[in-house]
Amino acid sequence: MFLRRAVFPRRAAVLVAAAALTATAACSSGDDTSTGSGDTPKVDTSASFKAGTTMAKLKSKGTIVIGTKKDQPGVAFQNAASGKFEGFDIEMAKIVASKLGLDPNDPKQVQFKEVVSKNRETFVRTGTIDIMIGSYSITDKRKKLVDFAGPYYVTGQQLLVKKDDDSIKGPEDLKGKKVCSVTGSTSIDTVETKYGANPVPFDTYTECVDQLKNGSVDAVTTDGAILLGFASKSPDELKVVGDAFSTENYGMGLKKGDADFRSFLNDTIEGAEKDGTWKTAFDSTLGKAGVKAPKPPKVDRY
Ligand code: GLU
């Protein structure tokens, strides 16, 4: 119920959403240099941390590398005109950076780096990135390799099809159909193992959407929050269908065993939920797609 109402609006709301996101895209594709998102959180200049912690190291280095996505409108997206990153995940990342005493508006202090789904665990483990914030579902399998703070948002898997396709209404209709999703995502596993689809893997959802548009696949599947953003960019061509058929808890991925950093991130998420910055972040990104800010999920300090 929560998922359906909060994340997957009914048809009318989807149409409003499409218009809203299209408008957002239109505004931010010109010479608008804003992030297209909410007010940048205030940098915590008084931030101080126990020596030797990841927080202390990042603060003294004066820079953090944040792995994210760059092609998921509303969630994590790089504006081609300004080069800036925007979306709900980006806002969450900025909140984290500002609590470390780093300025999210300074690209030297806060560097966003595109990391595709299949590389997330490796990049966290090798230290190529300091943290991963990019539609990253917390799963038991991934927890064996990395740790997670959060969840800070819950969405669920849905389907994106051509606007004139009435043959696919939900996952039960996928048997034998060509369904594109991303290598290393939870989405591709689910359609293959649970629904007998014929999976077509690519590295990014943009490539999948291109496959759908050119008729090479029958559907694209991933989190509703992501698909809604793509549908809104091509409202005459594409539509999101059916209810959510999975639960995706978005977390922040960090090196396994870094308990201090994980506590700091969990405190930061909870703090943002309490002081209203979480809601501001949501309203200025996914909220613009007509999605009403849900009650944030409870942080899991496992
Ligand atoms: N949230 C899902 C996952 O972590 C799908 C989206 C993605 O690939 O980033 O696998």
What does this structure look like?
With 302 residues, the protein is α/β, with parallel strands linked by helices. The radius of gyration is 18 Å and the shape is globular. Helix 2 (11-28) crosses helix 9 (224-233). The protein contains 11 helices and 13 strands. The chain binds glutamic acid (GLU). Glutamic acid (GLU) binds at residues 117, 135-137, 182, 185-187, 222-223, 248.
Overall 3D shape: globular
Percent of residues in beta strands = 15-25%
Mean pLDDT: 88
What is the helix fraction of residues, given as a range?
A: 25-40%
Order of strands, widest sheet: 10-9-11-8-12
Compute the number of helices.
11
Distance between the amino and carboxyl termini: 26 Å
Rg, Å, rounded: 18 Å
Q: What is the H-and-E element order?
A: HHHEEEEHEHEHEEEHEHEHEEHH
**Describe the biggest sheet?**
5 strands, mixed
Low-confidence stretches at least 5 residues in length (pLDDT < 50)? 1-37
Q: Give the tally of β-strands.
A: 13
Named once each, the bound ligands are: glutamic acid
Could you say which structural class the secondary elements and strand pairing correspond to? alpha/beta
Classify the oligomer.
single chain
